[in-house]
Amino acid sequence: MTYDVIIIGAGAGGGVAANVLTAAGKRVLLLERGISQTFAETGRDPLRNQRMSLYGHNAGPNADHPRVVEQADGSSRVVLPWQDGYQGNAATVGGGTLVYGGQAWRYHPNDFRMRSLYGQPAGSSLEDWPIGYDDLAPHYERIEQELGVCGDAQAMTHLPAYARSYPMPPLALTRQGTLHRRGATQLGWHTFPVPLALNSVPYADRPACIRCEWCVGFACPVDAKNGSHNTFIPRAVASGKCNLVTGAMVEHIVTKGGHATGVVYFDQDNQRVTAEAEVIVVAAGAVETARLLLHSGFESGQLGRNLQGHVYISANGLFDESLYDGLGPGVSTATARWSHGNDGIIGGGMLADDFIVLPVIFWKRDLPPHVPRWGLAAKHWMRDNYSRTAGLKGPIQDIPSPEARVTLDPSVKDRWGIPVARLSGATHPESIRTAQFLHAKAVEWLRASGAREVWGEPPAAPYLSGGQHQAGTCRMGHDPRLSVVDASCKVHGTDNVYIADGSVHVTNGGFNPFLTIMANAHRTAEGITQRW
Ligand SMILES: Cc1cc2nc3c(=O)[nH]c(=O)nc-3n(C[C@H](O)[C@H](O)[C@H](O)COP(=O)(O)OP(=O)(O)OC[C@H]3O[C@@H](n4cnc5c(N)ncnc54)[C@H](O)[C@@H]3O)c2cc1C
Q1: Distance from the CA of 520 to the center of ligand 1, in angstroms?
Q2: Residue 32, ligand 1, Cβ within 6 A
Q3: pLDDT tens across 246-299, in order?
Q4: How far is the CA of 522 from the centre of ligand 1 (A)?
Q5: Cα→Cα distances 368→328, 385, 391, 440, 497, Å
Q6: How far does the centroid of ligand 1 lie from the alpha carbon of residue 393, in Å?
Q7: Backbone angles phi, psi at 350, to 5 degrees
Q8: CATH number for the domain that contains residue 451
Q9: Model confidence pLDDT, tens digit, residues 415-465
Q10: Domain that holds residue 287
């Protein structure tokens, strides 16, 4: 069968694109290498989940999908999806949105013009986006309404006024949020509720959040967290126009000159299948989209470069009083005070309190340096102090480097015989300077909130940044020498191949990325509907 559009990847961007295109009457084939997972299938193992994957994880991909990581000394190692350096997200219907925390941020208007504001640091590939905040604003609004986001639009004073409020009010404030708001007020910093893609009240025929502790890294037990798996994709399928095929590993896009005729994929029985369409939309996530285009023979000096995510800072504090109220998801209060306009710093970032950190994850990641990692003393410290700790975290605007990149490994192949992604390079050193600046602000905030002990160090040296916030490998731009797709997200040099995921981000904003990925996928898909 020939389709109007084939979409590769049923994650954040792919789900939105499927919904827009089917609503416009297009016949869509949506191909996803993962499966459609229920809550029970995703499980609640604190040692095997997408937030801490010590012995595996819970939303894919499986061991059939290794990658190769190139070390600074030129040697390389093969890594599985839950091992350090993989730069993974998730591989399932919904992609990362099945298990994400759902922080639903609009980027700051200045996030789209980083080069104009800050110049281009030597060795970096810092650029402006070819579109601006105003181009995305109506699409942000559509996603907030159609996905379901709770928050307080009026409190977002760092952004132009919203045309429409969030469809749901913020969740009731937690104990740690109350404390951090008090601290910020003392410092004179404006704070606001973190916008979240979950139902604070019943919405779109699904119930309200029950405030459990198993949010980020897990699927929602009552289906109150909103991702593409329970909104856009079911709507697309219900239209009767979308054929969702899971267990479908796309091998390559079939092209003739600058025109794509379809794709070849392996179905769940490992049979090679060819499907044809008028238009191809790639939404496989920043690493796999670059890999797929490279393997399909697309050529551009930029393809696969500028891999970025978010250098994330984290600081923890110990307080006199118990802050633990067991009210998930936990994250509640943010400031955008340090997003831009910081003397001598390129960009900045957002700071917010954290999701509830499950005890074993806290033990592994967040114990103070002076506490032993095992034995009775560590257990006593946890018993006496875990409920009196609170952390602050935040993403900075990574300064992209062309050397941070995805290529095809020359020797390692996956089980289908496709060369795996080879990851190399590191973020630009300016990212580390910005992270150190933001970390100092987190420490200041924790102390103002009453922490009597603060710990956690900012990163000291550049490293490859991608991971769950991966972006940038097929950046958008007018000039084909400096970008992979044009402003409509059509691949330069082709007439019918588009990209609708995080890989088109020129820079990745000083905020978590998924809402921008969805808004831009919405804009891209609407553009595609104008073709015919
Ligand atoms: C634990 C966790 C917490 C997070 N919290 C937040 C948050 O609070 N806020 C936020 O903004 N972001 C968060 N994220 C990140 C967010 O989920 C991602 O930014 C977003 O999902 C990326 O969207 P995408 O469309 O680029 O790709 P994805 O959502 O990753 O979708 C890509 C899909 O393509 C499929 N695919 C890849 N290759 C192929 C192939 N060859 N053939 C077929 N299918 C393929 C993949 O299996 C995947 O399902 C979180 C992620 C995780 C895992």
Answers
A1: 15
A2: yes
A3: 999 999 999 998 999 999 999 999 999 999 999 999 999 999 999 999 999 998
A4: 16
A5: 23, 11, 12, 17, 50
A6: 20
A7: -100, 145
A8: 3.50.50.60
A9: 999 999 999 999 999 999 999 999 999 999 999 999 999 999 999 999 999
A10: 2-79+87-531
